[in-house]
Each structure stands twice: as structure tokens, then as C-alpha cells.
């Protein structure tokens, strides 16, 4: 991740901690899209993710005083979003079959990523076929350029779990992407 953005983020966190509303707004502008994308990856529902992230921002801004390292803001905020998503999923599970709907959508995404699609689109479509925990882990590690430790913090799982998820996800992605190449 760009060191200038990290420095800006740390400055905004410190300023927001003092009650600077402008810094709070800039922090939301700076990291809101990433938190929302993470929630969408975990939840599979854009509207639900928007609501979860909105609630998470309240918790994030109130909890800034508990953040020990201003440079660790993004993984810390992602962990709050992860926990909020988990609560939302537990609440929704009683009447829904989210996994089935998400799997159908992921299969459609891979089918639509034909030979003319860019490599990035093919990889993103392949990531969409992964189980949610693996998709979130891969996305944070590769797309968000986080370290294994930061992914561990963001997903609130042990480092070993992150490594295992990465291993399984890479294997599945290789299989999906090589299978697409064989069809050409």
C-alpha cells in the first residue's frame, strides 16, 4: 500500500480522535469504498453491505480512542466490518439460503468472463467462485495488498488460518483459471 496514503490515513485517524469532524469525513471518504467492498465480498449483498458498513463507521469512529497504532487503522476497521457482517449473517440465516444464491451468481460471473474478458476480470470472476472466507482472504491479501498479519487482524482469525485459506484459494483459482484456458 502507498506509504503516502498510509501517512495521510494515520494523520486523519489522529485528528479524528481529537474530534475533528472534517478529518472524520475525509477518513470515511478515504477508506469507505474499501470497507464497503470487503463487506460485499463477505455478505454477497450490496445493499446489506452498505447498511453494515454504515453501522460499522459509528463503531469505528467511537472506538478510535482504543486504536493503539494509527498506522493499523485499515486492518482494525476491516475487523470491525467483519464482525458486523458476521452478526448480520447470523441474524439473516434463519430464513435465507445466502450461500446458494451467491454460488449461482458466481457461476454466472465466470461464464460471462469469456475469452474477450481482461485477465483482471477473469481473476475477479474466479475469486467470486470461492467460498466467502477464501474470497475475502484472497481479496485482502492480493487486491488490498495487505500482509498476512493484517489480513489476520481484518478477518479476526489466526495467522495460520489466513495461510491455510490462501493455500486452498490459490489451488482453486489455479484450477478455475487453467480450466478456462483449456476451453480456448
CA distance, first residue to last residue = 35 Å
CATH superfamily of the largest domain: RNA polymerase sigma factor, region 2, helix turn helix motif
- Counted beta strands: 0
Tell me the major beta sheet. Answer: none
Rg for CA atoms: 17 Å
Any idea of the CATH class of the largest domain?
A: Mainly Alpha
Please trace the helix and strand order, writing H or E for each element.
Answer: HHHHHHHHH
CATH topology heading of the largest domain: Rna Polymerase Sigma Factor, Chain: A
Q: Name the CATH architecture of the largest domain.
A: Orthogonal Bundle
Oligomeric category: single chain
> Helix- and strand-based class?
mainly alpha
Q: How many domain units?
A: 2
Number of helices: 9
Mean pLDDT: 83
Overall shape: it is globular
Helicity, as a percent range: over 70%
Percent strand equals under 5%
| Parts with pLDDT < 50 across at least 5 consecutive residues | 94-103
